[in-house]
Design goal:
The complex is a heterodimer of chains A (about 120) and B (about 180). By secondary structure, chain A is an alpha+beta fold. Chain A has helices at about 1-30, 90; strands at about 35-40, 45-50, 60-65, 65-75, 75-85, 105, 110-115. Chain A starts with a helix and ends in an 11-residue tail after the last strand.
Chain lengths: ~120, ~180
């Protein structure tokens, strides 16, 4: 019984470390300035890099295996306007924010993210 | 934890548990996620997984989860969600089974937290492989936090189920002894 309690204490400590370091990671990634360069990654390849501060309003269509995603740029914001996928999680993410996570469309292998910061992982990669 | 029960009875129970897990999974899939982060969900079907890990051989628990994941993808998902589910489920079991042996029945909720966190880690690994970029790791901290919360919740539910079933079973044994 004593062994089980010790083991449980170790696991509780491990869980606490995971939780706290995750919260720290979220806080740090939210504080990092992101700049204004955004990249669009389709199926692992960067298909375009945009500077949102100088980009005119327009729509970009990206196709993956016949399924289309429409990315919209509006007043220096970028968001997923339409996606031919079952869940539409990427559309619900809304505008890409400097503080938040990248916009990800898992079914269509599409990612929109800030090149530096904003949930960026270049340091880890 | 091994009960003196015929193998046939165990297999029948596993079948019922798998069906229950599938129903929970399909129903939960219909509820839209409150947060726009792929992979964040309560994972209510894991109540059954946690219960099975504690009450059956590891191979039985593994089979139950495999059947649930495969049939769940057939009923509700797509092939891509299958890739995430299976890698998450396997990593979850690989961690949860030894942990459950180590810390025992008093801390079911704790095994469930670790299981949920490992599930999300497995999903993220699959996402990196599928998307061919590490950009998705940005989601990992969010998933870990949601995993801790969801895992504690499903683990507590599993703990309640276990306590109740065990006391029912004792009552059943007692009354059958009385009959004899």
């Amino acid at each position: 019984m004593k062994n089980k309690n010790t083991a449980a204490a170790v696991v509780i400590a491990a869980a606490a470390v995971i939780l706290l370091s995750s919260i720290a990671a979220v806080v740090i990634s939210r504080r990092k300035p992101a700049g204004s360069t955004v990249e669009i990654i389709s199926d692992g390849k960067v298909i375009c890099t945009l500077d949102l501060s100088s980009e005119p309003d327009r729509e970009i269509t990206v196709e993956y295996k016949g399924r289309k995603n429409i990315i919209a740029i509006e007043n220096g914001d970028i968001y997923m306007k339409e996606a031919e996928c079952p869940d539409h999680t990427c559309m619900k993410t809304g505008r890409l924010s400097e503080a938040g996570v990248p916009i990800v469309c898992l079914p269509n292998h599409l990612i929109i993210r800030y090149k530096n910061g904003g949930g960026d992982t270049d340091a880890a990669a | 934890m091994q009960r003196r029960e015929s193998r046939t009875a165990q297999i029948a129970e596993l079948g019922v548990l798998t069906a229950a897990a599938l129903i929970i999974f399909v129903i939960e899939n219909q509820i839209p996620s409150p947060v726009p982060i792929p992979g964040v969900k309560l994972g209510l079907a894991n109540i059954i997984t946690v219960y099975a890990v504690y009450h059956y051989k590891w191979s039985d628990a593994l089979l139950l989860v495999l059947v649930r994941v495969i049939l769940g993808s057939v009923f509700a998902g797509t092939m891509i969600s299958f890739a995430f589910s299976i890698s998450g489920a396997l990593l979850c079991l690989a961690g949860m089974i030894p942990i459950s042996k180590l810390i025992g029945e008093k801390y079911i909720w704790l095994s469930s937290v670790m299981g949920a966190v490992l599930h999300n880690a497995g999903q993220t690994a699959a996402a990196v492989a599928v998307m061919k970029t590490t950009a998705v790791i940005g989601y990992l901290p969010y998933l870990m936090i949601s995993g801790c919360i969801a895992g504690a919740f499903t683990g507590l539910a599993a703990q309640l189920v276990t306590v109740r079933l065990d006391s029912d079973r004792k009552k059943g044994e007692k009354s059958s002894n009385d009959d004899a």
